């Protein structure tokens, strides 16, 4: 049984309800979606659409460049981006998670697997959102330290990683690369579990409530809106992050509660933090369409399931994806 069959068997027909939060991993609460074990990390989520000679990447559902690229460990890097930042490497990431951080900045978690990047950065500190997004994917993480409590959470997560203090040769100033991270990673790392159920050729994003879409906007109080527009000629969604234009095959907005974390070491400050454990509203765009639904992630070792309003899994087109963690106070609109 592949991942799609497992997840479909685990989803009840009713709509998933509720949003759960927590700084430490909460106990799963009853819901209409029963989350199962992620399954075989090497299994392709879209085997029917695979190239006859090359396997599909577990993060993109698209054929990889070489067979070895499908089975290697992923690497991940947290980046801090402001309007004045020129981030590097995002165009090669298979998956990017975006959290709205302090001072109108974004905290990005970029995951690389099927493609390489010679320059990734600026690398920033580890945060709880990185750990909670990445644990099920098992990447090797390159990061620049962090508050004491966050470092303890990282150590307890079983994720492996490296900082400039651990090995300065992995980094060049505020930047690193996939080659340097893979070289620093211990041998025996596993490929990531497929986090999304990608569509086969001709399949729609959702079984029901599919709406044509050309523009997606996420507006957060006090900050500039994040706008994505569909480029029909290239079949990608185009947005701007810092000073860089980025593209994605799919953009998925998960609405969730944020809370403020007060940290003391090494310096006192307050940080907004997305509560990625729980349930909430979802809106996805992929191809020229959008669909609304619900997401659910009970805990650290569980994938985040994203279903439409009838309980069937959303199925984005094969390719790279951005997952945006939107606060409940944000305005999310599509037209």
Automatic annotation (TrEMBL):
Compositional bias segments (type: Low complexity): 41-63
Domain DUF3048: 59-163, 228-323
Protein known as: DUF3048 domain-containing protein
Pfam families on file: DUF3048, DUF3048_C
Ranges where the record places region Disordered: 22-65
Membrane-traversing stretches: none
Alphabetized InterPro entries for the sequence: DUF3048_C, DUF3048_N, YerB-like_sf
